[in-house]
Every structure is written in C-alpha cells, then in structure tokens.
C-alpha cells in the first residue's frame, strides 16, 4: 500500500473514532449546560430543612453560658476539635456558618496570628519546606481560592511545585491546598466549561451554543461517512450479482 493511501485510510478511520468521542463529549457538555444543578442534586425536590437548634442546657456549662452572654444566633452544631492550636469549641448556626469559636473554659478564642497559620500549614505538609510568605486575605481572594471562606491566611512555600496552603483565620482549618498541578487542571477546566470568569458554571449560553455546534459537526461528519459507504456497499452488491 502506498504511503499516501495508508495515511488517507489512517486519517479516515481515526477521524471516525474521534468523531464518536467528540459527539459523546459534546452531548455531555450540552446536557451539563441545560440541566439545573439543584435538580441534579435533588435539592429542588427536597425540603432542605436546616438543622434544629441545640438545647443549650445539653452543652457544657461554660459553653452554654458563653452562648447566652454573647447573644449568639441559634446554635445548630457544636464541635470540640483541635486543629493544631489546642481544643476549641466550634459553634455553627443553622446555615453551618461559624457563630463563635470558644476555648474549653468558655472564653472567646483569639484569632489566628501569622505564626499560628504558618505552624498549621507546615504541619499539613508531608515534607518540611521553608515559608516564603504569608498574608491575611479578608476580601478579593485570588481565583484559586474562589468560593472559599474568608478571612484566611495564605501561606506560600519555597517548593518546586509552588504550594500554597490556605488556613481559615477563625478556626485554623485547612481551607484549600493549591499547587502547580491544580492550577494547570483549573486552567483546562476553565476551557472545558467555557466559564472564563468564575470557572465553575456549566449553565451559560456560550457552552450551550458551542456544544450544539460540536454536536452538529460530529453528526454531519458521521453522516458523510455513511453516505460515502452506502454507494460502496451498493457497488459491491452489484459486482457480486454480476
């Protein structure tokens, strides 16, 4: 077989398989763009009732007294947890928002300092690394920390994979871990969703239109394949009949 003909046949068959996958991706993208995520999660048909407020008498006396004296909103969740700075009571309201952070004796826990955030972030790493910078973010977070709780400490490490650890400034919880691989993934995720601002929205017209165009492109390519094969099949039947 001549190289030119081989290349043509290889291109032809590869295009067929790629068109099938492109069609699957495109139909999937179109489906993502028109389905309401609340319907997908079952939230639109659910009552979505918030947790019932806790009976303060069921809490330890120092915590209950602190709740009354601080005039907190109804507490729906109380958790005693140590995130690296000693045990703290995390009190959350019905929307799971942090209402107060208390020490075991009922006193209000102090906010995290830079040293606290660096210590928590360092403890989160498997291998020690030098801290290059740390800053408190209370507004306008970077894109890599979108939709995450504020305020938070951003701790940047001297590492080849450009690791940044985000520590919630109230609780000391690790709110996010970001590195070069995550940013690469996020960039291509943005291209996949075609959401060039928030990067996480499937339900927008640009993606819907692009998905429809891709579906049409793949479908017409497959139809051309079918039309090309039909005359060949008819010629073969005619030759066999003769």
Report on the structure:
By secondary structure, the protein is an alpha+beta fold. It has helices at 3-34, 37-40, 61-70, 114-124, 180-193, 205-241; strands spanning 77-82, 87-92, 98-102, 131-137, 152-157, 164-168, 174-178. The chain has 6 helices and 7 strands, in the order H-H-H-E-E-E-H-E-E-E-E-H-H. The chain has a 4-stranded antiparallel sheet. Strands 1-2-3 form a 3-stranded antiparallel sheet, with helices on one face. Strand 2 and strand 3 form a beta hairpin. Helix 1 (3-34) crosses helix 6. The two termini are 28 Å apart. The mean pLDDT is 86.
Jot down its keywords:
242 residues, alpha+beta, 4-stranded antiparallel β-sheet, 3-stranded antiparallel β-sheet, elongated
């Amino acid at each position: 077989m001549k190289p030119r003909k081989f290349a043509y046949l290889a291109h032809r068959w590869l295009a067929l398989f790629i068109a099938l996958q492109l069609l699957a991706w495109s139909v999937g993208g179109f489906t993502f763009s028109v389905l309401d995520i609340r319907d997908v999660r079952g939230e639109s048909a659910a009552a979505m009732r918030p947790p019932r407020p806790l009976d303060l008498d069921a809490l330890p006396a120092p915590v209950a007294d602190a709740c009354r004296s601080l005039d907190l909103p109804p507490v729906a969740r109380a958790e005693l947890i140590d995130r690296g700075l000693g045990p703290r009571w995390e009190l959350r309201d019905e929307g799971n928002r942090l209402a107060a952070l208390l020490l075991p004796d009922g006193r209000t826990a102090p906010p995290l300092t830079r040293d606290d955030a660096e210590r928590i972030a360092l403890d989160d790493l498997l291998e020690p690394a030098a801290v290059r910078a740390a800053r408190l973010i209370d507004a306008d977070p970077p894109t890599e920390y979108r939709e995450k709780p504020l305020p938070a400490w951003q701790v940047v490490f001297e590492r080849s994979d450009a690791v940044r650890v985000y520590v919630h400034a109230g609780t000391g919880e690790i709110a996010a871990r970001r590195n070069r691989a995550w940013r690469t993934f996020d960039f291509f995720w943005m291209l996949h969703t075609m959401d060039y601002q928030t990067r996480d929205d499937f339900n927008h017209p640009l993606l819907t239109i692009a998905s429809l165009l891709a579906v049409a492109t793949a479908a017409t390519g497959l139809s051309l394949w079918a039309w090309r094969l039909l005359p060949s099949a008819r010629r073969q039947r005619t030759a066999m009949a003769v």
